[in-house]
Amino acid sequence: MSTVIDAGQVAEHNAKLQAQLQADYDALGGMLARRGQDIEELTSLAQGFAVAVPSWGVGTGGTRFARFPGRGEPRNVFEKLDDCGVINQLTRATPSVSLHFPWDKPTDAKELRDKAASLGLFFDAVNSNTFQDQVGQEQTYKYGSLTAGSAEVRAQAVAHNIECIELGKTLGSRALTVWVGDGANFPGQHNLRGALERYLDSMRKIYAALPEDWNVFIEHKLFEPAFYATTIADWGTSFACATELGPKAKCLVDLGHHAPNTNIEMIVARLAQFGKLGGFHFNDSKYGDDDLDSGSINPFQLFLVFNELADAALRDGAAFKPSYMLDQSHNVTDPVESLMNSAVEVQRAFVQAALVDRAALAVYQQQNDALQAAQTLKHAFRTDVSPILAMARVRAGGAADPVACYRASGYRDRVAGMRPAKAGASSSGIV
Ligand code: AOS
Ligand code: ZN
Ligand code: ZN
Ligand code: ZN
């Protein structure tokens, strides 16, 4: 496997931090042992964690107002993969990439698959895009795609999704994520029930094109770009559609796609209970679909989501395997740094959730001891598992401190020289 950053540089970085890391690790190990927890088990658990990187995340996102390009932005999917390779090389937590078509459409799929393999990467769910018009496209999505009143528009949107499945098959993906911005901006603009009927009709055709071992993930979102009535606005609609379509259809929860203060962990619990939790788009938000870095605003919520996932894993065993993906927009940071940090923050929540004393929690719940039940969760959440995460990375060949190692490597300067700025590089401002 080729590495993007010189492996010697990573080893040198780790050597400098090794004594300090070992001391912190031993101290944490002692504390956890007193609680009856084995740090080695937690470290191997952390090593087993993986979250996919979105190809669109390695470029600067932009907003509806402007996009301020960063230095050395990837100009095509091959360069995006190089950046994803760095993220995984240093974090060892992101071995897969989620592609978005047509942004990432390869001229030669095999070449793309080989490139990924050479970096030790593989492809996660593929994403379709019927929320923009592409140059040369026959029908416009201005008034919807899978739900459009026009049969021609719907046929084009269905064909695009089927093309995504075909591309995904050649790339080794096993799932298609469908997010549509379809909806209405005015009361009366369309028939609310009719739009969902058309959506289901389109999705049935896409579903029929899925290979045996594939899933389709339905991603709901409260609003934007449809500001009055988004067709797939909530998990209830998503659940109903996934149920209607069949066992390969599942729901995808993007953390930023809910009304403020929504209890997302309860949505996760519901979907898991009924076998329809397909996966996640992790990010954080303060007001809406902000697409901020995971764990940057509300790490406790992220922990509570993983607490539900840990509970579901205990109940359902190996069969419970939701897909984890990041979906963020980076406007003021180096996307590689943000994605590395975010992957680690999601991994942190995963490990913290494993620290919850579930036997004690069950007793407190039984006794209606709300205070101690809440404290049991807080106790796990307050534990700084950073040494476990760092040790997991180092043991797997990653960096003790990914951002410090990345900065010292000079990667961004190097690619800035090779990738001259291109107007409009990367995707849209919609993420
Ligand atoms: C849109 O808000 C969604 O989060 C989708 O996942 C979208 O397809 C992706 O962010 C790329 O724009
Ligand atoms: Zn304004
Ligand atoms: Zn998303
Ligand atoms: Zn979004």
UniProtKB/TrEMBL annotation:
Keywords: Isomerase, Manganese, Metal-binding. The keyword Metal-binding applies. Residues 100-291 form the Xylose isomerase-like TIM barrel domain. It holds the Pfam family AP_endonuc_2. The keyword Acetylation does not apply. GO terms for molecular function: isomerase activity; metal ion binding. InterPro entries: L-rhamnose_isomerase (IPR050337), L_rhamnose_iso (IPR013451), Xyl_isomerase-like_sf (IPR036237), Xyl_isomerase-like_TIM-brl (IPR013022). PANTHER family: L-RHAMNOSE ISOMERASE. NCBIfam families: L_rham_iso_rhiz. This is L-rhamnose catabolism isomerase. The gene is rhaI.
